[in-house]
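Our preliminary data section would be incomplete without showing what the modeling component actually yields. Below, a chain of 305 amino acids is followed by its predicted structure, encoded as tokens that our downstream tools consume directly.
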Amino acid sequence: MNRAKYSCACILLVTIVIAVVSPVMTLTQAATAPIYWGAVVDGAPGNLASWDTFEAKMQKKLSILHLAASGTWGTGNALQSGAPATAVENGQFQPFPTSYFETVRMRGAIPLFSWMAMDKKTINTPNFQSRDIYNGEYDDYISYWARAARAWGHPFFLRFNHEMNGNWYPWSDQVNGNQPGDYVKAWRHVHDIFTREGATNVSWVWCVNNEYWTNPESKNLEGVYPGDAYVDWVGIDGYNWGRNPAQPDKWRPFNEVMKQTYDHLMRFVPEKPFMIVETASSEWYSDTIKSCLSSCGSVDREHPR
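Predicted structure:
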């Protein structure tokens, strides 16, 4: 399967759907509350006007803002000098986005950050094999991030190395010289550093891609699950690509995209809070809006968590 994720120009809207997060609730307690929602908003939080425009059009406030752009770690081997702050200052590594997170918080929302251990959006990045992470090559940078998270001190979601059951990101056990089990080792290593540094305000989001028939490994969710002690929330990414030439497929309603993977997750991690982190629909269909709206009723009916 060719993900073609970054070349698709005909996506209607990328959103996340999540249990409500109140300022007086912990993120885990929020799992029993009514469903709220969030989105990636182009330009936000740096451009608050785009955020205002989005909420005005949707007629609904965001409870989550998903920050995904520039979430890659940085240039491989930039930390060999052992100076993460210098590497960040030089633009070689992604800094902790304190100011962005604070802007989101002041708007009454919770940041969700997709943190990606890679230096560019390609599969083969030998400087970012999973073993490099769990063998300690990036410990200085990870520790810097954990300390910065602790210093900021407010709750946020951290989606680390998502869609690991696919084969289009360099942290997948299926590519980039990784071996089965490497993903879990890397996740646990990063999580352990955050724990050691006291970054207890982080909620870890383990987010899979929806299972697909062309790759049986996409269904091996248990094999890439870090364990209950290392995961706070579970999530799914799934798209209706329709007849989009970037990813030719058939038109798939929401339930067809999500339900199989959702049911799989509910069988082996039934107690974890659940979110739909990424979803969208192609516009390569004459009744896109009508079909999307007709699917909305199945979200809470077929996916009660």
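Residues 156 and 211 are 27 Å apart (CA to CA). The two ends are 29 Å apart (CA to CA). Preliminary results of this kind motivate Aim 1 of the renewal.
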